[in-house]
Amino acid sequence: MRSPVTGFVTLLGLLLVLVVGYMSLFTVQQTEQTIVLQFGRPVDVVTAPGLHFKAPWNSVINIDKRILDLENPSQEAIASDQKRLVVDAFARYRIKDALRFYQSVGSIQAANIQLTTLLNAALRRVLGEVTFINVVRDDREKLMLRIRDQLDREADGYGIQVVDVRIRRADLPEQNSQAVYQRMKTEREREAAEFRAQGGQKAQEIKSRADREATVIIAEANSQAEQTRGAGDAERNRLFAEAYSKDADFFAFYRSMTAYENGLRSNDTRFLLRPESDFFRYFSNPSGKMATETPAKP
Fold first, then answer.
1. Are residues 73 and 162 both part of a single domain?
2. pTM (two decimals)
3. Is the pLDDT of residue 149 over 90?
4. 100 CB contacts (<8 Å, ≥6 apart)?
């Protein structure tokens, strides 16, 4: 029969084995790489994911091996044409050498601080060699590649590989932007006023030309109308003369009938004329001949 002391020792030994076994195992995730430390000194770097063994007295530090973000606050840079720029950029990087990274910077927070300083320096160097137009329009893609390459070379000593650098925004400072906007607004207003003046002048020229052409057309039409009217009057007179020469009595009768029609058209048919007037010649005699006076008897 076993004594209680033997059971206790066995249980204690089992617990010790479990604790030592637990302390000798560590897991590496697919997104991590692990540094094994022995009394604070690196002794191994494990990059393969899975379950691994170590000495119970060793410790581990997990370092992310995914692509990490570096958000850089807006910085001012001066282009080669002395234009001040407000540049908002960011970078993407990954830790390619975990041991060098741990020995040089130690943590991702410290790495971000160091990379921010290097990124700002690279931005100022590269952008200081080109003009404002190259930055904002012409060569932005090439400039971002140059900044990335410079930052990657400088970050290599920290075990870091810079994957990409992007300039999110590059613009003039707010006060400069307002001045440029005001200048552009003034210039556009001047051009608009010039266009309106040219349009008004052109409209006046067109209106004057149209008025002149209308005056000429009306004058020519009036002249042609007068000529036509004169020709018509001449033709009428010729026809009247021809008709009068053929039958003078009928012509006189026709003229008298026309005069009667015009004179008796209104409701008032009173005339202040002598009865023997030539106007009434067809009233007293249908033939239109005036009665001759008979000589007085002695």
1. yes
2. 0.53
3. yes
4. 157, 158, 159
